[in-house]
Amino acid sequence: MWLDGADPAGTGTAPANGATVSTWVDKSINGNNATQAGGSLTYTAAANGVVFDGAYSSYYTVPSGTFPTGNTYYSFFLVVQTSLPAGHYSHLFGSGVAVGGQAIDIPIYPNGQVETGWWTTNIQSAAGVVTANTKIILGSTYNLTGLFLYGNGATIASSTILGTRNSAAAVGYVGCPPAGPNSGGANGTQNFIGTMHEALLFSGGLTTPQRQQIEGYLAQKWGLTASLPAGHPGLTQTFYGTTTSTVFTPIILIPYNLYTNYNPLIATGSTCILWLDASDPTTLFSDPAGTTLATVAGTVGYWRDKSSSGFNCTQTTLAYRPTYVQSAKNGRSILSFNGLTNFLNMPQFTAVPLTIFFVAQGTVFLTNTFFLSLGNAGSTIMMRMLHIPEYYGVDGQGMLISTTNADTNWHLWSLTISSTTVTFYFDGVLIGNSVMNLGSAYTFATNTIGAWNQQVGSKATTLRIPEILFYSAVLGTSQRQQVESYLTEKWALVSQPTRSFASIVSVPKIGFASSGLVITHQDGRSWKLTGTAVALNAGTQMSLTIYAGSDVFNSANGRVALFNNGSSSAAIRHSGYVMYANAFGANNYDWGWYFVSSGSKYLIYNDFPSIGSAWQVSYDPAQDRVLIVPPGDAKYGMLWTITPRVTLSYVYTSYPT
Length: 657
Description:
Elements: E1 2-4, E2 23-24, E3 34-36, E4 41-44, E5 49-53, E6 60-62, E7 74-81, E8 90-96, E9 103-108, E10 115-118, E11 121-124, E12 136-143, E13 146-151, E14 154-159, E15 172-174, E16 193-202, H1 208-221, E17 247-248, E18 272-277, E19 284-285, E20 302-303, E21 313-314, E22 323-329, E23 332-338, E24 344-346, E25 349-350, E26 354-364, E27 369-374, E28 381-385, E29 391-395, E30 399-405, E31 410-417, E32 421-426, E33 429-435, E34 443-444, E35 447-449, E36 462-471, H2 477-490, E37 510-513, E38 518-521, E39 528-530, E40 533-535, E41 540-541, E42 544-547, E43 561-564, E44 571-575, E45 578-582, E46 593-598, E47 601-606, E48 615-620, E49 625-629, E50 640-643, E51 647-651
Antiparallel strand pairs: 1-16, 2-3, 3-6, 4-5, 5-16, 6-15, 7-12, 7-16, 8-9, 8-15, 9-10, 10-11, 12-13, 13-14, 17-37, 18-36, 19-20, 20-21, 22-23, 23-36, 24-35, 25-34, 26-31, 26-36, 27-28, 27-35, 28-29, 29-30, 31-32, 32-33, 37-51, 38-50, 39-40, 39-41, 42-43, 44-45, 46-47, 47-48, 48-49
């Protein structure tokens, strides 16, 4: 849940000062909107937040299940300020039933003390942590090691409290205690009095770096950076800023991993039904019940699905469990399968159409060995090592084989499965398709990671797996390439020569100042302006500014304009093949450009003649003209250097999602 006091409607437009905020929209993907119960809950333009007056009915309810139930890990963060009225206990969140140890509760005491926990089982800070009428970031995480409470990024209380918590799947509250208004008190002494600027709730116990990212974002957004403790990354790293007209959002021009701000659950616009991410240690458990976190070099009996489907993968037999290996690929953890006995069982699921992404490294190759098997005999989709000579492939009612001989590199499989056809991409390159008449809503009954049909021995594969994603749709080309780009960047797969991925431009989270840029052909000559024509030999060297306003054609997918000397009157456009400088045309693809990295250089694209069939910037030496041509016409070179490298300017409001 993400409640943003600066944008309570979730539209980007603030309400009028003093307006009632009857619905505080959840800006996460989950739709957990906060609904006014009554009383006075109003927007303040001066403080960018929602004002609670503490009256009996002045609070919000959120849907049942918003707050975690059972012994479930969680993290929350709030930015609030209160006057600390005498004798008044301001409860910020509440959920569950008001009995011992079964209700989440976060009150601020009249003396500035903060408490978090489960009603009567809780931890408390010292008095005076909260100062009257002063904003503060309050945060808490609960995980296997205990319960922690933070104020402005510093630990203010902790405990090894464990056990079943928040047992009831009750309605949650914002601005009052669990079990309803004034529970445990009377005469309006329990509901929150003050301004709530932002509230974030996560369904997992965040790691320290993750927590500090959130705190850095909140501190920079709400002017609390100076309150962070020494050494906090929010003091030295940029997590939030304000957009300007010279902002560049795509990944490809700077050495920074945008994948950290890419959310596979929402970015494609389709439903993610399985997300297994070994880089997240909170998803790896040693026991098949998923109660004890796995230790480094220990076995994994439960791999938690990070989607909402609950397709957790398990192995009840100790000898059959894979191993948790830390810092194995690009500094991140993976699961290692021994090729003899190790495999994980995936629950039965029903999903056609379906798109699958699977990253893996094979290390020992045997004949007829498998990475992944789904379904029943005769209609099984299998990612496997095929017969000698060993190639990567997909098998089922038809066989699709890559042209890449088996090696020990890390590779990416992408499959789309419709009711009639399976299509196989290997490292982002189309291999082919095969008829597979699964029909609609096919049920995959027996599903195995690391082997075939839950069999050990010769059909298992010695391999290492970092991440698997399933979507309940046949993703379009741009959607598929978004996910491929995310996985490629995250797992450092970009060095492999077959890769040709679009950049992750549809999630414009990170912005970059980018002006005074010089674009140079691969032969060393830079763009020049001769009259209005873009050339390489004669003319005045161009100094380009990237403009990423919403009036650029297809800006939502990262298209940008290029202004010479920062002037919108000299925006780079094309007309047919020809490129020249002209007054900027809003929402016209002639002026919309995007870039894809190729080693240290870039390919420059325009959506001409239509999105999905983009032409590339090239050069015609006969006329000394820079122009755009179809992707296959590369006789004069299409690689360009862009200098200087653009520098990190700010991170937009990315971390909460």
